[in-house]
Amino acid sequence: MKLDVYTLKGTKLEKQAELPASVFEAPINVDLMHQAYTRQMANAHLGTRKTKNRAEVSGGGRKPWKQKGTGRARQGSNRSPQWVGGGKVHTPRPKSFAQDMPQKMRQAALRSALSSKAADQEIILVDSLALDEPKTKFVAEALNKLVGDSTALLVMPTKDENYVRVVRASRNLQSCKMLLANYLNIRDLLGYDKLILPLDAIQAIESALG
Predict the structure, then answer these.
(1) Domain residues of the chain, as ranges?
(2) What is the pTM of this model?
(3) pLDDT tens per residue, range 129-140
(4) Potential cystine with 2: which of 16, 23, 80, 101 (Cβ 3.0-4.6 Å)?
(5) How would you label 135-152 residue by residue, b for 16+ Cβ within 10 Å and e otherwise?
(6) How far is CA 5 from CA 26, 32, 82, 124, in A?
(7) How is domain 2-29+101-209 classified at the CATH fold level?
(8) 139 within 8 A of 180, measured Cβ to Cβ
(9) Which letter does DSSP use for residue 137 in this model?
(10) pLDDT tens column, 90-136
C-alpha cells in the first residue's frame, strides 16, 4: 500500500511511501482486537481497594461487659462487625485483575488495528516530525493542517532530543498523544481518529511487528 507524504505544514510532497503489507495489510480480526483491548484495560485496573477486618481495626482487648446479669446481649469484643468502628466482613479486598495473552496474539492484534487504520485511510505520513524548538503552537498548527478537528496519535521511532522537544510541545494538547513506536498499544490505536507516522517510524514498527 502506497500513501502520500506530507510536511508538517500540510503540503503534499511529490513522493509516496510504501507501507509494509505484513503489518498494514494483515487480516482484520475484530475479536482479537477486543481481547487485546480488554486485557490492557484489565491490567490497568489496580485492584487496591480494601477495608479493615476485625483483626485490623483498633480496640478490643477486654470483654465489654460480663457475660450474664446485665440484661444486654452478650459481647466478646468491640471490634465485632456489629459495633460502630468494628471490622468489616465480606467487603472488597486487594486482588489482581491481570489477564494473560501470548505475545504473538498481542502482535497480531496490533497488526490488525494498523491494517484497519490503513483500510479506513486514517494514516497520515509525514516526512519528519523534527522541531527546532519545543513550542506548542508548532504542533498545534501542524495538527490543524493535517487532521483538522480530529484527534491524532503521533508515533516517534526513537527517544532522542527531538522526541523530548515534540513531547514538550504536544503535552498540553488534549487532541493528540505522543508515543514511541515500541510502545504502540491497542488502546491508543483505537482511541484516536488519525495515526500520524513519520517515515522513520514505519521501519521501527515493521521491526517490532513484521
Answers:
(1) 2-29+101-209
(2) 0.83
(3) 888 888 999 999
(4) 16
(5) eeebbbebbeebbeeeeb
(6) 22, 30, 70, 7
(7) Ribosomal Protein L4; Chain: A; (3.40.1370)
(8) no
(9) H
(10) 999 999 999 999 999 999 999 999 999 999 999 999 998 888 888 99
Q: What is the DSSP string of 159-170?
A: -SHHHHHHHHHH
What digits encode the pLDDT tens for the residues 150-164?
999 999 998 888 889
Provide the H-helix boundaries in 120-210: 136-146, 161-170, 186-191, 199-209
Q: What CA–CA distance (Å, rounded) separates 87 from 198?
A: 57
Contact criterion met (CB below 8 Å) for 140 and 147? no
Tell the residue number behind the cell numbers 485496573, with chain if given: 45
> Cell numbers of 132, please?
527546532
**What is the CB neighbour count within 10 angstroms for residue 51?**
13
Using a pLDDT cut of 70, give the percent of the chain over it.
Answer: 100
pLDDT digits (tens, 9 = 90+) for 16-39: 899 999 999 999 999 999 999 999
Whole-number pLDDT of residue 58: 92
8 A C-beta contact, residue 156 and residue 201: yes
What is the pLDDT, as a whole number, of residue 210? 67
How far apart are alpha carbons 70 and 78 in whole angstroms? 16
